[in-house]
Amino acid sequence: MRAQPEASHFIDGAYVEDDAGKAFESVYAATGAVIAKLHSATPAIIEKAMASAVRAQREWASWLPAERARVLRRAADIIRARNEALSELETLDTGKAIQETLVADASSGADSLEWFSAQAASLSGESVPLGDDAFAYTVRAPLGVCVGIGAWNYPTQIACWKAAPALAAGNAMVFKPSEMTPLCALKLAEIFIEAGAPKGLFNVVQGFGDVGAALSTHKDTAKVSLTGSVPTGAKVYAAAASGMRHVTMELGGKSPLIVFEDADLEDAIGGAMLGNFYSTGQICSNGTRVFVQKSILEKFLSRLAERTAAIRLGDPLDPETHLGPLISQGQRDKVMSYIEKGKAERARLVIGGGIPAGDGFEKGAYIEPTVFADVTDDMTIAREEIFGPVMSVLAFETEDEVIERANGTEFGLAAGLFTKDIARAHRVAGKLAAGICWINTYNLTPVEIPFGGVKHSGFGRENGKAAIEFYSQLKTVHVALGRVDAPY
Ligand code: NDP
Q1: Cβ of 337: how many Cβ atoms within 10 Å?
Q2: Which residue's alpha carbon is nearest to atom 34 within ligand 1?
């Protein structure tokens, strides 16, 4: 199986190679097969990408809003028309099950481009009356060239969620995918050209952290938008600050999901499973600390184990498969070491905890969906982001207690709660320290609503009207209508 792109980078409307860059391979996580060979960007590639983005941004910003909107809309339409091929590529890039990628990746990217095309067409400032002698108006101006740096779990969606608001606001973007998933963003770059974008408006350069760092500190970079871990976020934030650049930081989490005793049990279990096992657990907003009220704990666990046992692991390209492998063997080792820590710290293993044996599993980075019960707040598995299909169930007794424990983390990306008590639902949602809180569902991220974290989980928002604010700046123009009143 091969998914070799024409060349490693896409710059100024065309594929570009520079063999002097460090070579790396793209590996299909389900089989360990090398599906593409690429090169990391050299300084010359980075310069080429930045220079072409600077040129494209000037042109793009001069277009009529409706013209810009049309390009984004066309890109969305092209993505939808190619959903199947793009979903297959997403599956090869990440190992995620095709059952998921067909509905959650390219299609989410298309939603975002479509929705932000409407924003592009309707961006406006305000007019401020200042009496008879003056007035002022504001203009929502682009920032310039924005750098997007992606994690490996959602290569298409991350690229679109960054590009759509950035381009809608009149910016250009240079995007660096994770070197684990280099393929999908290249297709998006092709599609933008096909949709009529100026060459260079969306460039893709490949590479490791050093390429991300070089882009983050480039003299022409106005903004850096990162999706990644908290330690990388701290580095990129600091690097961006050195040049007073704008940032959006979409970082990790250890989100709480609270199940009160009056919750619909099947819904709560379904939410907890989606919030821990979807994308083989590699989702930043996952509700990995599942707090269950003591009175329903054993009932919750036995039904959860029953439903978890029915999850089908296997070939990600088989439409019947629920869960594919993790992104890499390295990630599997990391997740397995957390499972070992959970056992050593005396959490109760309810189900899973191992590497599946048998045909088709030998070469892939597979891991069983895993549930631990009797987890306490101080255990490693309750404190650190695992980024794999490992659910920790913690017991609680009272509302006040669970709020305090749910908030007792450096992270603050997301939170969820299941209850039929409407007053309690809103009361608790109001007290949870998280950028997004779901009531009676989990992990839904329609483009219309802002998404992003508080505390160490990040800064800035993706999606929703809020995203435009993070990809633009207000310029105020004061207009005098009278004479200048100078005392000297
Ligand atoms: P990393 O933080 O390791 O990497 C993220 C990206 O940053 C990669 O492209 C990486 O390149 C690049 N990078 C690494 N070092 C630097 C640097 N010094 N300067 C600039 N760029 C750099 O994250 P992962 O790829 O491992 O993704 C998993 C993490 O992402 C998890 O913590 C997860 O929670 C978070 N995440 C957050 C989301 C959110 O929306 N809040 C969504 C999805 C994931 P390279 O790959 O070569 O190291």
Answers
A1: 12
A2: 252
